[in-house]
Every structure is written in structure tokens, then in C-alpha cells.
């Protein structure tokens, strides 16, 4: 029956695709990086540069080996720079200020949810309106999802 429906065009085998609205400032794909400590990860987005690793983020498989990703140990982080050891790349004007526009997508695996963990951020927390943006993962009622 399924074969007949597929032949008649009543069942689609199409899959959903990720769609982004340009410009895509940051695009990092951990599946293309070798296992081990991350010195740098190229940013394929329009801001260019590389994400330099600090305090030993590593490329690792998730439990069971279902997916490869960047693993952070609680003190490790990555920062967008022009090149390893180079100058930081500031967020573009369209992402900062009192009324910016943005869309953030992060795929994360975390076996234990903490009070607040930042997945993506830019700016300075506590620096006035429009100076901070953080996309978080956690249980904190004030900062568990987003800080701005």
C-alpha cells in the first residue's frame, strides 16, 4: 500500500531543511573538526574569523556516538577573533543597541541542567540597555533562557 501511495505522489519523502535569513554572522560546524582540544574553529558566517578556544574545549562524541560537538568543561569558552591570537571581532551594529534583531539556533546536549549556562553571548552583562545578549540553558527563572 505504501509503495502504491508513494508512486501516486501521495506520500512525500522530502525532509525539512534549515532555513536562515541573511546575513548569517556566525556558522560553526563541529562535525567538520578533528577530535581533541579545540585551538580554533573557523567561522563560516559573514563575520569571518575563527573561534579561538580557551581553557580546553574539546571536540567529542555525545554518549553513544550519535553526534559530534564542542564540549565545554565549565571554565572553557571560545571567542571570535580575526586569527588565533588576533583581535576580537565585535558584533555588528545590527546585533547591539536597545532594539536589535536576531535569531539564534544552538543544538546542545547537556545531561544535567544547571541554574544558568550560557550557550552564546556577546556584549557586557550589567552594562546598560542593549549592552548584553546571552542565550542560555538552565533553570534560573531570570536568566535560564535569555539575558538582555
Notable features of this structure?
148 residues, 2 domains, 1 helix, 26% strand
Question: Can you describe this structure?
Answer:
By secondary structure, this protein is mostly beta strands. The chain has one helix at residues 2-7; strands at residues 36-37, 40-42, 50-54, 58-61, 68-71, 77-81, 117-123, 132-137, 146-147. The strands form 3 sheets. Strands 1-4-5 form a 3-stranded antiparallel sheet, with no helix packed on it. A hairpin with a 7-residue loop joins strand 2 and strand 3. Residues 1-12 have low confidence and may be disordered.
Write the layout of secondary structure elements.
Blueprint: H1 2-7, E1 36-37, E2 40-42, E3 50-54, E4 58-61, E5 68-71, E6 77-81, E7 117-123, E8 132-137, E9 146-147
Antiparallel strand pairs: 1-4, 2-3, 3-6, 4-5, 7-8, 8-9
Amino acid at each position: 500500500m505504501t509503495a502504491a501511495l508513494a508512486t501516486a505522489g501521495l506520500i512525500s519523502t522530502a525532509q525539512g531543511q534549515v532555513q536562515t535569513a541573511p546575513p548569517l554572522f556566525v556558522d560553526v560546524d563541529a562535525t567538520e573538526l578533528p577530535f581533541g582540544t579545540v585551538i580554533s574553529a573557523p567561522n563560516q558566517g559573514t563575520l569571518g574569523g575563527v573561534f579561538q578556544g580557551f581553557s580546553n574545549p574539546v571536540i567529542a562524541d555525545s554518549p553513544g556516538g550519535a553526534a559530534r560537538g564542542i564540549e565545554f568543561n565549565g571554565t572553557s569558552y571560545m571567542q571570535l577573533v580575526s586569527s588565533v591570537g588576533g583581535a576580537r571581532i565585535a558584533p555588528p551594529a545590527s546585533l547591539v543597541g536597545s532594539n536589535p534583531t536576531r535569531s539564534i539556533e544552538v543544538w546542545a546536549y547537556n545531561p544535567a541542567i544547571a541554574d544558568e549556562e550560557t550557550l552564546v553571548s556577546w556584549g557586557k552583562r550589567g552594562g546598560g540597555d542593549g549592552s548584553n545578549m546571552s542565550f542560555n540553558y538552565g533553570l534560573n527563572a531570570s536568566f535560564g533562557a535569555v539575558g538582555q
